[in-house]
Specification:
The structure holds two protein chains of two kinds. Chain A is mainly alpha-helical. Chain A has a domain at about 10-90. Helices cover about 95% and strands about 0% of the residues of chain A. In chain B, helix 1 (about 5-40) packs across helix 3. Chain B is elongated. The two termini of chain B are about 20 Å apart. In chain B, about 35% of the residues are buried. Classes of the chains: A mainly alpha, B mainly alpha. At the A-B interface, helix 3 of A face helix 1 of B.
Chain lengths: ~160, ~150
């Protein structure tokens, strides 16, 4: 193997430069591949973290709803118990008895104040029922009238005389 | 608003009146039969005869019922429920003769009333013969007006 001549030195330089470029490209490709792998790893870790956060949030919402329902049920139970205690207390019973006695005495002493109310209510109910019956019958009449009118017209059209 | 009553209103009023007469006479005949069965053999036989001829007498009773109500009030209870009133064709209340004639025809030949389907003033055969017509009064004010008109 002989030493290259002066003219061959230029080719050597070009070859060295190309080789250097190829090496650089390979190094860059390796760096890019390493970067992509690192990015994928980071993305996978992020999505896993996000899923864990979502599960935790779901659990938290469920627990909060459960606690609220329990608190509401406890409040309703306490309110019912309080109402029952008030309604069955001796004082309220006495007040109700007094008022009922007063109303019964009023009915007994002044029936003319109650009778128009009862009569008016009864008349209203009867009037409503009768009105509905009459309206239904009138609608039936109108339907029969329309039918007979249509049939008579058709008969008149069919008969040329 | 006063209009001529149609087939449905009049048929329903007719059925209601027939039901009233049938129930009333049925209850009466049954009560009489029960009383007669206790009183004696002759009364028992008489009640059996009345009960057996109950269906034959029913149209007469219906005609009597209609005659009385039309002549006195211009309407039967069934017609009152449906807001109907029977008047003379030229206006005014029905007399006893017209009421009787109309009631007789309606009790024994009810199918003749179907003529109202093709009549301009909704008059059936009994109406044509008795010269009457049936009005539908749609409000209490109409009823008062019609009552005053028939009273004149």
């Amino acid at each position: 193997m002989s030493m290259p001549g002066l003219l061959d030195l230029g080719d050597v330089a070009i070859g060295a430069a190309i080789r250097a470029g190829e090496s650089t490209a390979e190094a860059l490709a390796r760096v890019r591949a390493a970067g992509e792998a690192a990015g994928e790893r980071a993305s996978a870790e992020t999505s896993g973290l996000r899923a864990r956060f979502a599960a935790l949030a779901e659990r938290g919402a469920a627990e909060r709803a459960k606690r609220q329902a329990e608190a509401r049920a406890r409040a309703a139970g306490a309110l019912d118990a309080a109402m029952t205690a008030v309604a069955s207390s001796a004082l309220v019973n006495r007040i109700v008895d007094v008022q009922v006695d007063r109303m019964l005495r009023l009915f007994e002493d002044e029936p003319e104040r109650i009778q128009p109310l009862v009569r008016g209510q009864r008349d209203t109910m009867v009037g409503e029922v009768v009105g509905r019956v009459r309206a239904g019958a009138a609608a039936g009449d109108a339907a029969v009238d329309r039918l007979t009118l249509r049939m008579s017209r058709r008969g008149a059209e069919a008969d040329p005389t | 608003m006063t209009v001529y009553a149609g087939l449905i209103s009049r048929s329903m009023a007719y059925v209601l009146d027939a039901l009233i007469v049938a129930v009333f006479t049925g209850v009466t005949a049954t009560a009489l039969g029960m009383v007669a069965s206790v009183v004696g053999e002759l009364a028992h036989r008489l009640s059996a005869l009345v009960l057996s001829s109950y269906l034959e007498f029913l149209p007469f009773l219906f005609a009597f019922y209609c005659t009385v109500f039309w002549a006195l009030a211009g309407r039967t209870p069934g017609m009152a429920v449906f807001g109907l009133r029977v008047v003379r064709a030229e206006g005014g209340p029905l007399g006893w003769t017209a009421s009787f004639l109309r009631a007789l025809l309606l009790a024994f030949f009810p199918i003749g009333a179907l003529w109202l389907l093709v009549d301009r003033r909704r008059q059936g055969l009994p109406d044509k013969v008795a010269r009457t017509t049936v009005l539908r009064l749609s409000s209490p004010r109409d009823e008062v007006t019609a009552a005053l008109r028939t009273a004149r």
